[in-house]
Design brief:
The protein contains three helices and seven strands. By secondary structure, it is α+β, with helices and mostly antiparallel strands.
Length: about 150
């Protein structure tokens, strides 16, 4: 009997402590902010992969111009529910429907993409690709698509 009582106490103490030491849910943001020592502040997805915009999308209507082989190399990013840290504004994000019928998340009017060449979270190897038409998304200096 005494053995059961000690185990219950230990369990209760463990449960009480776990309530106070549960980590913040920052990892659960669908879009987050990261930093690169050379490129500065940039947007990443929930897994830490860099988000990019394509300067050719600047046609003014907010539509994605990256289709077919381009979309295979630069997969469109879509977050069904936008959750962001306090340093970002959720109203700056929206969803568009692409010509292929798929949804894509935008930031300040720019469709967002991942880069298939980024093999790990934190990589920024897509920045400057294809004659400098692909760019990281810097939330502090991102142009608004009009």
């Amino acid at each position: 009997m005494r053995f059961m009582s000690i185990n219950r106490r230990i369990l209760l103490v463990f449960l009480a402590l776990s309530i106070f030491y549960t980590p913040a849910l920052a990892e659960n943001y669908s879009i987050n902010v990261s930093a690169d020592k050379f490129l500065g502040t940039l947007l990443v997805n929930q897994s830490g992969y860099t988000l990019y915009y394509f300067s050719d999308d600047a046609g003014g209507d907010g539509a994605s111009t990256c289709t077919g082989e381009c979309a295979a190399k630069w997969p469109p990013f879509y977050a069904g529910v936008i959750t962001v840290p306090d340093s970002l504004k959720a109203v700056d994000f929206a969803t568009i429907t692409r010509a292929d019928g798929l949804n894509q998340t935008t930031y300040k009017g720019w469709p967002l993409y991942l880069y298939s060449g980024d093999k790990e979270a934190g990589f920024t190897s897509g920045n400057g690709r294809d004659d400098n038409r692909w760019h990281i998304v810097n939330p502090q200096d991102q142009p608004v698509m009009l």
